Structures are given as C-alpha cells and as structure tokens.
UniProtKB/TrEMBL annotation:
Residues 21-312 form the G-protein coupled receptors family 1 profile domain. GO terms for molecular function: G protein-coupled adenosine receptor activity. Coiled coil: none annotated. This is G-protein coupled receptors family 1 profile domain-containing protein. Belongs to the G-protein coupled receptor 1 family. Pfam families: 7tm_1. Keywords: Cell membrane, Disulfide bond, G-protein coupled receptor, Glycoprotein, Membrane, Receptor, Transducer, Transmembrane, Transmembrane helix. It comes from Pyxicephalus adspersus (African bullfrog).
Amino acid sequence: MNDNFPFVFLEIILALGIVSLNVLVCATVYLHKELRSITNFLIVSLAAADIGVGAVAIPFSIVLSMEYILCFYTCIFITCFPLVTTQFSILLLLLIAINAHLKIRLPNSYMVYVTNRRLAFAVLLCLFLSCLIGFSPMMGWNQFQQYVGSNRTHAASERSMAGFERSILLYYLPRRSRDLSRAYFSHRQVINNSSIQGDHLGCCSLTSVFTPEYLVYFVFLGCTLLPLLIMLSIYADIFRVVRGHLRSSKKWEINMAWTMLLLVGIFCLCWIPLNAINSLRLLCQSCFIPVPLLRMAVLFSHMNSFANPLVYAMRKRNFGAALKSVFLRLIRCCPVPTVLRRNHKIHPETG
C-alpha cells in the first residue's frame, strides 16, 4: 500500500479534477443557449466520455494497481471498461473531424445532411462500437488459461504451506486433537480448491487478462492509430481548402479546425507512453518494465481527459467566458458576467 500511495493519491486528485471540469463543460452548454450547436453537442459528448474516465475508469485503475485477488470475470470487466471510454473518445474525435470537414466542404448544404437526429444516431453508434471493441476480451480474447494457471501455482504453494503447518501441529498435539486437526485441514483444502476452481480467483492487474497482441494489433494499431491517421488526413484537407479560399474563409472556421486538431494532438501525446509500453511488451517479452514507469504512463493517459476542457477554455474565447461565468455562479453565487451579453456577433461554432 505504501508503494501505491503516490499513484492512488494522484489518481484521486486527477479524477476529481476531470469530473469537475467536464461537468462544468456540460453545464455551460446547457445554461447558455448561444452555445448549443452541433459542434458543441459533440464536445459535450466528449466531456461525458471524460466524466466516465474520472468517475469509473480511474477508480478501476486504482483497483488494478492494488492487484487484489478477484474473480476472473470481475477482473476482466474492470480492465475492459477503461478501453470503452478511450475508444468512445477516439470515435468522437473522428466524428468531430468529419463534422468539421463537411462544414468546410459543403457550406451550403451542410444543414441538409447533418441533422440533430442523424448526429444523435452517430454518437450512439460510436458508443455501441466502443462497447463492442472494449468488451471484446470478455468474448474470449483474453488470457484465461494463464490466469487460471497462475492461480493453480499460487494454490499449490498454499497447499505446501498448509501441509507444513499441519505436520508441525500434528506432531505436538495429542491424539484426539490430531483427529480434529486432520478433519479441519481436509475441510480447508476442499474449500480452497473449490474456490479457486469455481470462482477462478487470482491477482487482478492490467497485464493479467489482456494479451499483448490484443493491446497492440487490435486496440493500438486497428482501433487507435487508424482513426487518428484518418483524422489527420481530414484536417490536412480542411487546411488545404481553407488556404485555397483564404479570403472567403471565416476566422471561426480556421479557429475551429485548429482547436479540434489540438485535441487530436493532445490525445496522441497522452497515449503514446502507454501504447509504447504495450508494444515493447509484445516485441520484447523478456524485457523488464518497471512498475512506476507503467503507472506514470497510465497517469499520463488519464490526463487527456483533464486537458480537453482546458483546450475549450483557452482556444474558444466565448466558451471560456461562459465556463468562467458558470464557475462563478457555482462558487460565489455571482450573476452572469456581461461578456456574453455584450457580444452580439457570437457565432455558435466559436463558442
């Protein structure tokens, strides 16, 4: 526990910050009608995914760091849920990029193709695909045999210790007590065997249920790197179009594209360390990875959910002013600042 204390403490602080900031983002869009746009709806969906990281994924990460003895199916659910929130964030970033691309490429017919109903369906589809990808290890792509095998080794060591303990006690106890002791140790061995074989108990950690091939080939290369490359190509085309029509391009369009590209860049930076470690585990299975390094990579990946609201506040001026106004109303019970009231030319996408 002493070794885990810095990691657990930082995770708790990070979780509180993530939940607070992203709830503030959702409340800001809800309270300010001028911010209720399609782009901001996607940002609220991304904030909801980040709330899931702070409220559920980080507590599960803390449980995994403790390496508790858990049932295999409980352990695999705990380890799969963070993958769901991560994949949901990736797909939402891809959806935001597609939305921005349609807005730049089809400015006149954009509202015809992109409706609220279609957008809600797209977000629900992203959530469904995220659950399908994240919970795929529960369908069989896991290390069940290794998990059970390691527990049998653990059970064998317990039985050897129990045998040593029994031999010592039986040597010193009287005959009547020896009979009772034999019955007790036999009963305890039956209970231990049934609990290990029936419940599949074992030491639960991130590396105990996932195969390196699943984390690298499927999660990283297939479900993370591929969408990110698609996003980069979309934003490259957006900037090419904007540069070609620089005079007719609106300032808010350029600012929006840069903001969303910054979100993608921060996501890449935050998740590179953990994916690099998973790739190293696959390519060099004999290499030793220090536990503190792995925990720092996990912390860095969670910081992505903390950074997203800060990007909204710094890159989107009116959104930042609205965030500040809601924060003051919650903390000091102050009236809404007049920053938004005085600005009559607020475009809903700049907020």
